[in-house]
Amino acid sequence: MEISVDRANEVLIAKVEGRIDGANAREFEDALNGAIGEDDSKVLLDFSTLSYISSAGLRVILLIARLLQKRNAAFALCSLSDPIREVFEISGFDKIISIHDSQAEAVDKIGR
Amino acid sequence: MTQTPYKILVVDDEPDLEHLMRQRMRRDVRSGTYTLYFAQNGVEALERLNEVPDIDMVLSDINMPRMDGLTLLAQIPNIAPDIRAVVVSAYGDMKNIRTAMNRGAFDFITKPIDFQDLRVTIERTLKNMEQWREALESRDKLVRLQNELNVASKMQQSILPTEFPESDLCEIYANMEPAREVGGDFFDVFGLPGGKIALAIADVSDKGVPAALFMMSSRTLLKGSAIGAIEPGAVLKEVNDLLTEDNEAAMFVTTFYAVYNPHTGQVDYANGGHNPPLVVHSDGSSTLLPGTDGMALGVFPGVGFGQSAVVLSPGDLLLLYTDGVTEAMNADGEEFGMDRLQAVFANAPPDSPEAANKAVFKAVHEFAGETPQSDDITCVTVLQRQP
User: Fold this and answer.
1) What is the average per-residue pLDDT within B311-336?
2) Residue B149 has what pLDDT?
3) Cβ contact (<8 Å) for A55 and B254?
4) Confidence (pLDDT) at B1
């Protein structure tokens, strides 16, 4: 699992590559917490190169969503592959986290 | 350094050494850092070790009457296996030094004794011994934790039902294979008023001890709610509201809960973010149960849970499973997936729930091959019997 960070229109974009499972969920959590600065009020996770996410990974997404919600910061996901979108749909997480088809669309939606 | 003085046994046949050591080390002795014991040969040293069982370190000469230092070295482990020994040898006596090291000496110093060097050697030796003791303690702790995990695992397995309601109308079987000692999956099958049967399968986010604790409370809440309410959607709503209170750890549990009426074959169900169960027909074809617009429990307070119903025809199997089945991976990183699950039944629909579960587990294991199981695998299967 690799995370690369970029910023566009005041949106912090974290691109996640590889897989997130029980073995590296903690590492994923730490990496995201490290990447998201105190002043970031718009956070987007780009999942275009994410190959797999387990429930342990979903839990980290939930933790981050809650953290950002407390700070009134915007949070969204984009570019989910079909199997990963299905994971979010089955678990019902798509109801509480906004999911966009592309990075451009997401940045346009939550950016300045 | 610890509060109790380290006990050092000095073994040398030169009577002057005791006097010299006491003088050079007097500050360390007075400050309570070290306590010194003395012996004049190996035999006396062994006696001293027997009298004072918690000696930490032996500093021994090699050439001594009655029993020399090399023989003493070989004897020490029989009395005190964790003791650290340092030998004092004549300068350049490499043969004896090698023998001493091979017999387990930790270090050596040479005569005439350089007390500055001796002090450093003693400190280093005792530090090493401390680390060794800490490592031993950690190992013991680990063994204790492992034992506790084994107990937890047995407790967890023991709350899962192993006997299921059976009649002319239906047959039920359920089992789980945990990936680790304690897991996050659970299922439940129990009788409700009016001859109905409650069916539940659930999967807690993550695995291990935190998941197991969350699983235990989820399971208890679910059973309590199931007995109090009739509608599956209302049951999940109540459990969700209770789980979202004080859920700082953001754990969640995907839960499928159903009330099954064996007399009519009707299954009223609510799906809280769980994999859609499968209805396998007697011709081997199968359909997925449509969702009920729910989400995993523990995530969001106050949300409602929809419900739906399906009627099992005689010969139909209802298969509840966790993602340990569909997300099992093989060596190429492929998932077992829904298609393979449906294919298990395509040609040979099993005639009993137990056979169905066995077929699923077998297919998953064959698919995964040598790839280690990373998630709990659970199946609950209901057969609506032919009249």
Assistant:
1) 93
2) 86
3) yes
4) 44
- Hey, is the C-beta of B375 within 8 angstroms of any chain A C-beta? yes
Q: State how far the Cα of B134 lies from the Cα of B71, in Å rounded to an integer.
A: 29
Into how many domains does chain B fold? Answer: 2
CATH number at residue B274: 3.60.40.10
**B205:A59 CB<8 A:** yes
CATH number for the domain whose boundaries are A2-100: 3.30.750.24
Asked whether B342 and B278 are in contact (CB, 8 A), the reply is yes
- The amino acid occupying position B312 is L
DSSP A93: G
What's the gap in Å between the CA of B295 and the closest CA on chain A?
4
B150 in a structural domain: no
Contact list in B for residue A95 (CB cut-off 8 A) is 295, 300, 303
Q: Which of B72, B103, B138 is the last residue of a domain?
A: B138
pLDDT above 90: percentage of residues in chain B: 72
Residue A86 to residue A77: CA distance in whole angstroms = 14
Query: pLDDT per residue over B3-17, tens digit each?
Result: 689 999 999 999 888
**pLDDT tens digits, residue range A52-96?**
998 889 999 999 999 999 999 999 999 999 999 999 999 999 999
Cα dihedral: B245, B246, B247, B248 (round 10): 150
Print the domain residue range for B15: 6-138
Distance of CA B258 to the CA centre of its chain: 32
- Flag whether pLDDT at B303 surpasses 70: yes
B127 closest CA partner among B97, B88, B84: B84
User: What does the alpha-carbon distance between residue A60 and residue A93 come to, in Å, rounded to a whole number?
Assistant: 12
Average pLDDT (B307-330) is: 95
B152 inside domain:
no
Q: Is B178 on the interface with A (CB under 8 A)?
A: no
Q: Are residues B74 and B208 in the same domain?
A: no
Task: Give mean pLDDT, residues A18-26.
Answer: 88
At B63-122, the pLDDT tens digits run 999 999 999 999 998 888 889 999 998 878 889 999 999 999 999 999 888 999 999 999
**Which of B107, B138, B169 is a domain's end point?**
B138
CATH of the domain at B133: 3.40.50.2300
Kindly state whether A93 is in contact with chain B, defined as any CB-CB distance less than 8 angstroms.
Answer: yes
Residue B146 within any structural domain of the chain: no
In degrees rounded to 5, what are phi and psi of residue B111?
-90, 150
Chain B residues touching A90 at Cβ < 8 A: 254, 273-276, 291
Q: Are residues B183 and B113 in the same domain?
A: no
Question: B205 in a domain, yes or no?
Answer: yes
Instruction: Indicate the pLDDT class of residue B182, thresholds 50, 70 and 90.
Output: confident
